[in-house]
Amino acid sequence: MATDTGFLRATYNLLGSIRFTVFLLLTLAAGALLGTLLPQGMSQPEILMRYGPQRAHWIQLLRLDDLYHALWFQALLLLLGTNLTVCTLNRLPKTLKILSRKENEINPERLLKFGQHATFATPLALDQARSAMEPELVERFGRLRVLSTSPSFTAVAEKGRWSHWMLYLVHGSVLLILFGALLGSVLGFKGFMNIPEGESTAQVHLFGREQTVVLPFEVRCDRFEVAYYDNGMPKDYRSDLTIRSQGEDVEKRSIRVNDPLTHAGVTFYQSSYGSDLQEVELSLTKADTQENFRVSLPFRRPVALPGTAGDLQVVEFREDFQGFGPALAIGLYRDDQEPTGSWILADRPDFHGNRVGDYQVQVLRLDKRSYTGLQVKKDPGVWLVLTGFVTLLIGMGLSFYTSHCKLWLVAEAGNPTSRIVVAGRSNKNSLAFESEFNHLCERLRLRLQAR
DSSP class of residue 305? Predict the structure, then answer.
C-alpha cells in the first residue's frame, strides 16, 4: 500500500514539474518542426519514391506523414494539458491565501522596513489629516479600508487584487487551445472528393490514408464551369453544389476558390477539377499480319479480344502524362502468358511506344466526364483554439500591465505634530509602482499643507 502511495505521489510530482513542462514543449516543438518540413498527406507510393524503403518504414511507423493524427503526438498534447492542470492546482492554494489575507492591525515600525515608505509630520489633528488624505487615496485606489481611528488612525488601500487571476486565465487559455487541438486531431479529418456533374456522393477520401469517411449527408454537383485566360490558363472555376439529407435538398450554394461552403461543421473548398474516363475506342493492328480491328473498352472493365483467348483492360487514365497529354494504361491478359501492358498516348497516334503485346494501338475516341475536385475539412476544435488564442492574448496583456498594489497608512497623534507613515508594495512592475508611490506621497504632502 505504501509502495502504491509512493508511486502515485511520484507520478503527481512529475506531472506538476516545470522540467517536465519544458521537456513536453521541446518534444512537441520538434514534432511540429518535422510536421512542417515533411509534406503531410502523402500516399505510400509517394513516400517510398521520395525517401526509399528504410526511411519510409520509419515515417509510416511514426506516422510522420500524418503527424497531427499520430497517437504519440495526441498523447503529448494530453500530457501537456495534464501537466499544466497539475501546476495550476499546485499554485492555487498560495494565490487563495494571498487574496484572503487581511490585516486587522498595522505596526508602524514594520512599515519603515518596506522598500517604498515615507514619513512626514503635520500640525493637523488626526481627523483633519484623515479628511485631507482620504480623497486622494480613494481616487488612486478606489476604496480605503479603515482598521482603527483611535488612538491612531490606520487604514489599508489596494487595487488590482484581481490581477492574481490573470495567470489562471493564461493557463486556462492554453488548456483551451490544447483541448481544441486534441479535439480536432481525434474527431476532425481532411480529405477530398471528386464529384462528376449531376452525381452525388457522401464519401470523403482521406489524404495519405487508404481510408474514407462517410458524411451524414450527400453532396451533389449540379454544374461545373471553368473560365480561362487568353493563354489557356484557368482563370476561375465554380461548382454549383447541393447538400442532400434524407432524400431532400437542404442547401444550395455555388463555391469558388477561397469561397468555401460549410455545412454541419464540414467545409468544402474548391481545389481542383478534371475528367473521369468512361469509355475508350481503340484501333488495334497486329504487328505480324497487319490485321486491324476496333474495340470499345469501358474504364477498368476487361473486354475479350476478338478471335483470341485474351482480355484487354484500361487500368488507369492520366489527363496529362509527363507533359505528353492524355494517356491510358492498358493491360493485355492471356491465359497462357504473363500479363503485359503499356502507357498509350492518346494524342500521339504515330508514337512507336503505343504498343501492347504484339498490337500497335491507336486511340480513336475518349469519352470523358468532367468532375469537380473538392477539399473537405472538418475541425470541431477550431473555435476552441481561436477562443483560446484571443483569451491568451488578453490574459498575457493584463498579466504584464496590471499588478496588485497595496498601501498601508498610519497617522499617530503627537505634540505639537502628528506623524504620518505611508508604505506600499506591488507584486509586479516595481519601477512603475515606485514612481506612482512617490507621486502619491507628494500629493498627500500638498493636501496636508493646504489645510
Answer: P
- The three-state secondary structure class of 437 is helix
Q: Domain tally for the chain?
A: 4
Helix (H, G, I), strand (E, B) or coil at 308: coil
Are 152 and 412 spatial neighbours (Cβ–Cβ below 8 Å)?
A: yes
Specify if 398 maps to a domain: no
Whole-number pLDDT of residue 414: 81
290: which residues sit within 8 A by CB, 6+ positions away? none
Q: pLDDT tens for residues 280-323? A: 999 989 888 888 889 999 988 889 887 777 888 998 888 888 88
Stretch (H or E) spanning 443: helix 430-450
Stated length of the chain: 451
> Which residues are within 8 A (CB) of 411 and not within 5 positions of it... i.e. 6 or more apart?
126, 129, 130, 133, 152, 153, 154, 418, 419, 420, 421
The three cell numbers of residue 412 are 499617530
Sequence-distant contacts of 332-338: CB under 8 A, at least 24 apart: 332/305, 332/356, 332/357, 332/359, 333/302, 334/308, 334/309, 334/310, 335/309, 335/310, 336/309
Question: Which residue ranges in the chain fall short of pLDDT 50?
Answer: none
Question: Residue 133 is part of which domain span?
Answer: 105-160+403-450
For residue 2, the model assigns a pLDDT of 56
Report which DSSP code applies to 162. G
Q: What is the pLDDT of residue 70?
A: 87
pLDDT for 24 equals 92
363 and 377 share one domain: no
**Closest Cα partner for 332 from 358, 307, 350?**
358
Which H or E run includes 158? strand 152-159
SS3 350: coil
Q: Which long-range contacts does 21-30 make (Cβ < 8 Å, 24+ apart)? A: 21/80, 21/83, 21/84, 21/87, 24/76, 24/79, 24/80, 24/83, 25/80, 27/76, 28/73, 28/76, 28/77, 28/80
| pLDDT at residue 253 in the model | 93
- Give the per-residue pLDDT at 45: 66
Q: What is the pTM of this model?
A: 0.69
* Residues 258, 376 share a domain: yes
Residue 336 contacts residue 343 (beta carbons within 8 Å) = no
Position 155 scores a pLDDT of: 92
Read off the C-alpha cell for 230: 487568353
Residue 110, φ and ψ in degrees, nearest 5:
-70, -35
Q: Is residue 170 part of a domain?
A: no
